[in-house]
Structure formats: C-alpha cells, structure tokens
Specification:
The chain has 10 helices and no strands. It has about 220 residues and is mainly α. Helix 1 crosses helix 4 and helix 5 packs antiparallel against helix 6.
Length: about 220
C-alpha cells in the first residue's frame, strides 16, 4: 500500500484559485503602471492574465477594487493575510536591543516596502479624485503609516532607549511624515533617489530627529 497522500479536491481548488489570483494581480500591476488607471480596463487585465472576463468580474467586481488589491499585495509583499504590524521585519524592528539596530531595521523595512509598492501607489494616488474607494484607502494608508511609526518610537521610549527629555509626540509626528509614501515618491521624482538612498536618508534623519526631540 502506498503511503503517498494525494491532495484533496478542496486543496487543489484552493491552489488553482490562488494561482489565478496571482496571474490577475501580476497582469493588473503591469498594465496599471504602464498605461495608467484610466486607460486600463478589466477586459485588458483578464486577457493579459489569460482568464475569463467573468472570472475577473466575479473576483474583484470593479477596477477600483482590483487596484486596491494590487496595492495591498504590493505593500505586504505577498498575498498572505498578515498586516504590516505583524510582519517579521517590523517585529524585529520593535525588539532589537539598541536604538541603532532598531532604526536600521525600521528604515530598511520601510524603504523596501516603498521601493516595492511605490509605482503602483503612484497610480492609486492619481486615481483618488475619481474613485472614493481609493481615496478612502489612501487616507487609511496614511493613518496606518502614522500609527506604525508611533508604535515604533513609543516602543523605543517605553524600553528606555530614548532620552528622558524626548518630546515623544513631536518625534512620532515628524518621523512619521518622513516615512509616508508621498515623501518617498517626492524624493524619487525631485531628487532622483533610489530606494537605497531613501533608506540611508531615513536612518540619518531619524537619528537626528531623536537628538532634536531631546533638546
């Protein structure tokens, strides 16, 4: 008797569904970035992904929903249902033993996220004025970035790694602005920065902000 365990029919269906979604998201990302939001159609995405038009409409419903999903996956880095605060890189940044190590890890994670998602975020930002769903997602994203940086610097403070005289509210607010996607895109457009240059700038700027907030 063979000990080989055959995959269940439910498992095979789930795998096919996941593979189909990956093809749709990859095709959508490419077309949105290449052609822009207005010029990209769901029919074009379905054809590029080699799926039926009905399959895409049933899965996502609207173009705005599809773009939002593409953005969410780009930010996370994969399709797993794990938000940024629970990602390994952020948890490592919260718990490293020194201020320097935490800043290095946080800047690296933030820069990697924006390098990965920057192009598709730029498309979403351009579509905000015509798509309420994307406008709301952008507001939620900015709030999430603010909260993420507040959690990071508050953890530094609570762990006794910041000077006692630090102005924590000012530090959280100011450091958070530097981590926003719009800041990254502006630096990329006006200064020609790469993701690596942005990462180095974050490290230096956050260290200087800590010193300034303690003055």
């Amino acid at each position: 008797m063979s000990d080989t365990v055959k995959p269940s029919s439910a498992g095979l269906r789930a795998a096919r569904v996941a593979e189909t979604e990956e093809r749709i998201l990859a095709a959508a990302r490419e077309l949105f970035i290449r052609d822009g939001y207005a010029a990209t159609t769901l029919v074009a995405v379905a054809d590029a992904a080699r799926v039926g038009h009905r399959t895409l409409y049933v899965r996502f419903g609207t173009k705005a929903e599809l773009l939002k999903r593409v953005v969410d996956v780009a930010i996370a880095g994969d399709t797993e249902d794990i938000d940024v605060p629970h990602r390994d890189w952020f948890q490592a940044a919260l718990t490293a033993p020194t201020v320097g190590e935490r800043i290095v890890l946080m800047a690296a994670g933030n820069a990697a996220l924006l390098s990965r998602a920057g192009d598709i975020l730029a498309v979403a930002f351009q579509a905000e004025h015509v798509e309420p769903l994307l406008a709301e997602a952008a507001r939620a994203g900015r709030a999430a970035t603010r909260d993420l940086l507040r959690q990071f610097f508050t953890a530094l403070h609570d762990d006794g790694l910041l000077p006692e005289t630090v102005d924590l509210d000012w530090l959280c607010d100011t450091a958070g602005v530097l981590a926003h996607a719009q800041t990254y895109l502006l630096a990329r457009e006006t200064l020609g920065w790469t993701g690596e240059q942005y990462r180095e700038w974050l490290q230096v700027s956050w260290r200087r902000l800590i010193a300034g907030a303690s003055g």
